[in-house]
């Protein structure tokens, strides 16, 4: 066989390409890696948003002061919408949201994986530092989830982990541990970033605020909110509702992504 290949090469013919062992062989798994990674991230983002779609719908109804629900609170609105519009009313507009969130989630997860690889190969940095750098560029929760996953698998691999279905040499978290780590990561990320989110929203509302409440810079706005309203009623106002949305969303996002990585042979 080797002699025949050498003869073909000497004659100027291209060498035969070895076939992968089955449709899911090593060669096939390297093909379209970016596309498979894109799909994994997009599906994870869509599943996460669908999980909290009822809460997003309620938030919009209350923010818009809808005349049917403006006198109700969050949980009473959650009960009232199915009675008035049916259970699908809680998912109204979710299809349009999927069109927006699929590429967003795909790019976010792809970016994190790409940044991790780039930082490791080009800068020679690994461990918590490279996760922190990659997470900072892709999203504050990626670092937290990656660290929780790494620490968990390092200290209790048998209790928390199992071999990946697409690569037995790779250890992954069990599904329920994935959900827990994703939820904790989302909660920590929200807690750290929430004051900046409050500041951003207040700056966006600058045109409708009274003149004495207007601030020009982020730092001025943050100082104003803290000085007049404090921490709990100012910088962290509404955080509890955000936890209700964020924790299940992030838990589902990271868990789905880890499962999709195995399904699309990304490990």
TrEMBL record:
A GO BP term here is: transmembrane transport
Question: Does Mitochondrion count among this protein's keywords?
Answer: yes
Listed A to Z, the keywords are: Membrane, Mitochondrion, Mitochondrion inner membrane, Repeat, Transmembrane, Transport
Task: Please state where this protein is localized.
Answer: Mitochondrion inner membrane
| Superkingdom | Eukaryota
Q: Name one GO cellular component term.
A: mitochondrial inner membrane
> Solcar repeats span which residues?
32-118, 173-263
* Principal subcellular localization: mitochondrion
Task: Report how it sits in the membrane.
Answer: Multi-pass membrane protein
InterPro entries recorded for this chain?
GDC-like (IPR002167), MCP (IPR002067), MCP_dom_sf (IPR023395), MCP_transmembrane (IPR018108)
Q: Which residues form a coiled coil?
A: none
Q: Which family does it belong to?
A: Belongs to the mitochondrial carrier (TC 2.A.29) family.
Database matches in PANTHER family:
SOLUTE CARRIER FAMILY 25
Name of this protein? Graves disease carrier protein isoform X2
What is the native source organism of this protein? Phyllostomus discolor (pale spear-nosed bat)
Q: What is the lineage of its organism?
A: Eukaryota, Metazoa, Chordata, Craniata, Vertebrata
Q: What gene, per UniProt, encodes this protein?
A: SLC25A16
């Amino acid at each position: 066989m080797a002699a025949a290949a050498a003869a073909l090469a000497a004659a100027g013919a291209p060498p035969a390409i070895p076939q992968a062992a089955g449709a899911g062989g090593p060669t096939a798994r390297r093909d379209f890696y970016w596309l498979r990674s894109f799909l994994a991230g997009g599906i994870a983002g869509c599943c996460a948003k669908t999980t909290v779609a009822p809460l997003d719908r309620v938030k919009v109804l209350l923010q818009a002061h809808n005349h049917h629900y403006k006198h109700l609170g969050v949980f009473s609105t959650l009960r009232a919408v199915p009675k008035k519009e049916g259970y699908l009313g809680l998912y109204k507009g979710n299809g349009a949201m999927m069109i927006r969130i699929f590429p967003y989630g795909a790019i976010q997860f792809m970016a994190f994986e790409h940044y991790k690889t780039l930082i490791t190969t080009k800068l020679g940095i690994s461990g918590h530092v490279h996760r922190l750098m990659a997470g900072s560029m892709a999203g504050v929760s990626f670092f937290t989830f990656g660290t929780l996953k790494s620490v968990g698998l390092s200290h209790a691999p048998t209790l928390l982990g199992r071999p990946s279905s697409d690569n037995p040499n790779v250890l992954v978290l069990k599904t329920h541990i994935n959900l827990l780590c994703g939820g904790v990561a989302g909660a920590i990320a929200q807690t750290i970033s929430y004051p900046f989110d409050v500041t951003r929203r207040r700056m966006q509302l600058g045109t409708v605020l009274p003149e004495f409440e207007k601030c020009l810079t982020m730092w001025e706005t943050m100082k104003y909110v803290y000085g007049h309203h404090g921490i709990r009623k100012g910088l962290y106002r509404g955080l509890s509702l955000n936890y209700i949305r964020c924790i299940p969303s992030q838990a589902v996002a990271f868990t789905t992504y880890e499962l999709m990585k195995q399904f699309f042979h990304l490990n």
